[in-house]
Each structure stands twice: as structure tokens, then as C-alpha cells.
């Protein structure tokens, strides 16, 4: 019996965006409670390009060629079992785990059913693929960890990015006063998302213009202009510093403890139930999705380069079907 194949973005070795190629590879086999998905679109996240380059989650990759990609939006091709909630033809979105197997930069992917939710009907495939990892990271940081609420002041660094634009909206939805940093070109965008105060980080020192805050959601760290370290100057005593990008400020825990502040990193949990809540917020118009660019699967190299440029407003997405 001939093994089914599919087109995918293949990585033969770690390296720059140019190592990516389009090729044929064996299609994934659904196991246990997994759902097989026909991929319509796949979002690209910083962790995807870091892993391709040899960082991120690269330690989990056990074979090449490798197919990356966490975010997926598509239709169910095979259900986990006959009476499962998700059945063939259903439109879903969610997160794959590429470091442990095959990712979403392909025509098909097998995903644990608990990592999926029904796609919001108001979103296109590409918009839906822009949501899962970024929105769930923002949810974990803003809602689960920081417990955003009325009377709280929350500072979000890089508020116009993939995770940032969700973090701004979620913090605002749950009643916090939101301050966000970005470049001048993105200030109006942040105001439109609901940010109460915006800071042009290219012209202002946020620690000099912002009153004390209760929480910092840091999507930059010390890898750029010591953003993480400087955040402690604006964080109140006993406040919470949340560091999101892996490795962006290795010494944050010690520095925060010495300054009398709480701190934590955050690793996204691919929780389909929470993704379903985000989906309902989107359907209600309380949360919006911003796409920076859509590239066809064949143009994956350019898509990777756009993400790595650091200039994307919102998410970069691959259109697969």
C-alpha cells in the first residue's frame, strides 16, 4: 500500500530562513485522541523561527527533514473516534506540537483534540490561524498569571506585535488600565485596540513618562535597549514582572527579587478550552485579530524573514489551501 504524501515546508538543518524548502513528505498518521486536520492556514510565531534557527524548542527535534509550525486552522479530516465532538468537515483552530512531531506548515497535521476549538465563523482561515499561540500566550500572561482586573495598571511592551495586540485587548477587557509601548507608526493602532496610554519607545523613555504600574508584560526583555531591566524602574514595590520571550533576559528572576518584586516567565499552554473562550470574545467583537501579511506556502522563506524583521504589526500567516 502506497504511503500518502503531502506538501510541506521542510527544514533539513538548522539555519537562516533560506534553509526552508517546499517538498513532499509522508502525511501524518493520527494516533490515540489526535485529530487529523486538513490545513487551510498556519500562523508563524517567533518560536517557530527560533526553533528553525537552532534555538527555541530545537532540543526536542529528533529527525530531519523537520516540519515546523504551531498555529493551525483547517477542517477535520479524521476524528479521534466516532462520537467525538469534532467530526470530519468541522472547522477548527488550535495548536500543534512540532518539536515532538510534525507541525502545521504542511497540508495536513495531527493534533491532540484538547488543543483544538471550533473556528469562529466570523474569521477567515488566515485570521483564525493568526490566533492560537499568540492569544493563548497573552491569555496565560494577562488573565491566568496577572489576573487583570479593574484598578490595575498593566504595561505591555511591544503591544503591536502578535502576542502584544492580544495582551492589550485582554487586559483592557478585564478592566485594567493599559499602557503599551511601540514605535510611532503603531501608536494609533494601539489606541484603537483600547490602550489608555501609548509610549513611542524610539523617542521616549517609558520609565520617565509612565506612573508606577502593577504588572509588566514584557515581550522584549533585555535583548533590546535593556527593556526588561528598565521596567523595574516603573514597576511598583511588590509588583509583578512577566517575561515572555525565552532567553530575552536570563537574569530577570534575581533582579526582580533583589528589587522586592515578583516575577515569572510564561510558556504557552495549548488549551483548547481557553482558546474557545478567546473565540467567543472574538465573535462578540471584544477581541480583534490583526494580520500583518499573508504568504502562500511556496513563499515560506519570505514569511519567515518578515517575522524575524521584528516589524510585523500583528501576525504573519501562511495560506496553505
Give a quick precis of the structure:
The chain has 321 residues and is an alpha/beta fold. Helices cover 26% and strands 28% of the residues. Helix 3 (132-145) packs across helix 4.
Structure description:
There is one protein chain. By secondary structure, the chain is of the alpha/beta class. It has ten helices and 15 strands. The chain has helices at residues 46-52, 125-129, 132-145, 162-173, 187-193, 206-209, 227-231, 252-258, 272-283, 300-309, and strands at 5-11, 20-26, 34-44, 71-78, 91-95, 108-112, 116-118, 153-156, 177-182, 197-200, 213-218, 235-243, 262-265, 291-296, 315-319. Strands 3, 4, 5, 6, 7, 14 and 15 form a seven-stranded mixed beta sheet that branches. Strands 10-9-8-11-12-13 form a six-stranded parallel beta sheet, with helices on both faces. Helix 5 links the parallel strand 9 (177-182) and strand 10. Helix 3 packs across helix 4 (162-173). It is globular. It starts with a strand and ends with a strand.
Tell me the layout of helices and strands.
Blueprint: E1 5-11, E2 20-26, E3 34-44, H1 46-52, E4 71-78, E5 91-95, E6 108-112, E7 116-118, H2 125-129, H3 132-145, E8 153-156, H4 162-173, E9 177-182, H5 187-193, E10 197-200, H6 206-209, E11 213-218, H7 227-231, E12 235-243, H8 252-258, E13 262-265, H9 272-283, E14 291-296, H10 300-309, E15 315-319
Parallel strand pairs: 8-9, 8-11, 9-10, 11-12, 12-13, 14-15
Antiparallel strand pairs: 1-2, 3-4, 3-6, 3-15, 4-5, 5-7
Helix pairs in contact: 3-4
